[in-house]
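Q: A reviewer asked whether we had any structural model of the full assembly, not just the individual parts. We don't, so I'm hoping you can provide one. Inputs are below.
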Amino acid sequence: MRLRGISRDWAWGGSTGAGIRVGIIDSGLEADHPRLAGRVVESVAVELEDDEAEVVPDDGKDLYGHATACGGIIVEMAPDVELVSIRVLGADLRGKGAAFAAGLEWAIDQGIDVLNLSLSSKSETLFPVFHDLVDRAYFKRVVLVSAANNVPAASYPSLFSSVLSVAAHGEPDPLRLYYNPAPPVEFGAWGVDVPMAWKDGGSTVATGNSFAAPHVAAMVALILSKHRGLTPFEVKAVLAAVADNPR
Amino acid sequence: MVADDDLTAALTALRAVGRRSSVARTLQGDVEQRLLQSIVEATASLFDAEASSIALHETDPDRLEFRVAAGAQGAGAVGLVVKPTEGIAGYVFSTGQGLSMTDVASDPRFDLEAAERTGYVPRSIACVPLLDDEGTIGVLQVLDKRGSPSFSLRDMELLAIFARQATTAITATRVQRDTVRLLREVLGQIADESMTDEQVESVVSKATEGLDDDPDAGPFWQLVDHVALMRGLGERDLNLIGEILEVVARHAQRARRRA
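A: Here is a predicted structure for the entire assembly that you could use as a starting point for your response.
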């Protein structure tokens, strides 16, 4: 069913992402990286002390380069967004589900409009935690965009239905978008041989679902900047309507 | 503190567990290593790659250790140790997200030093996580696909399939490999507040001391070796051996009663 009347021009024509905050839950944004063009407005990190998570100010560094890559993709497509760096990876965290959940909770409570997630957790004990957080985000109108895991196993929160899960396609066009109503992946965006920023002011070319997700996060920022207050399900409907494979 | 009698009983029980697990490990041989090796060989060959390798996560200290490698440029990777907070292998391990990169040597993010230690600096790299039910246990990586500057999505999917095979091989043998860790965890849980970490450690080391000694050291281990040889036998042969052992056991019982 084609959602009539919704075109790309209507969805994001003229939009630059102004007024929209996008949170990158990842390895920490390198705030002074030229490709982030000074758009980083806040940097925090999760610290775990005896499994108690605390969110503290961060120093604007990227341990790996991955977060900066995602941020750069978003700024290129939506140059006026404000980026918030939420670092949940690091020497003592190493992708711990509890740190990830704490970072996600903080970002949702801040009411950051769009959250780009590169991580997922397989932990069954965290399943209810993520479920609760994802629902909280949904009703707070925080749009969660998550890289789909490319292994056929349960991973949260990318599998929850209110999350926009994204896999990579190989057509070199940042706005090329596919909609797939069958789980586990709902959207397809460019994620193969993508030129991107990397740590220490560098750049690279890389492939992965985690580079497809920021393309969709940027589209969401463009839509929300032009149509403030849309709910996550309305955003999904708009994306499905303007996808390159109309149904 | 635990009473002496309890401690002796616990030690005996733990030693029995350790012994069984040690027997299982001997029976199984280096199945894990051979399987992992065959997986990296298949990966290197299928991708026509310069190298393919598997790194597993180890603790104390926290590290990723390259266990097997294949391909013309792979040999230098075996034994290489990298931090889980660094480089492409570290990111893939930490996030469970596979990724590939092109022209890696010219990028500042690439751990050039680690690559140089292997004697080979790649142009492109693809890396996927080894995921079991609880999380990431290591990574599988491929360097430089000949005839192509980068890895395709199909390549990444294929790699993920090989990674699943590797994970199955590892988890199937993990209990045997990690006897000490298993005992430490179980004992730590049972003892709860009544024992300090040091006490747990001391009990575990007493219980597992000498378990991995030379298999030729005693007749028991010779027997284990014989049994290990029987693994490939068919049902008829196994039944026959079962009957022979039964006769031997009955004989032994009678001999003991007479004595």
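A: Points you may want to mention in the reply: Chain B has two domains: 34-174, 216-258. The interface with chain A takes residues 62, 84-87, 90-91, 93-104, 107-109, 126, 128-129, 131, 133-136, 150-153, 156-157, 160, 163-164 of chain B (CB under 8 Å).
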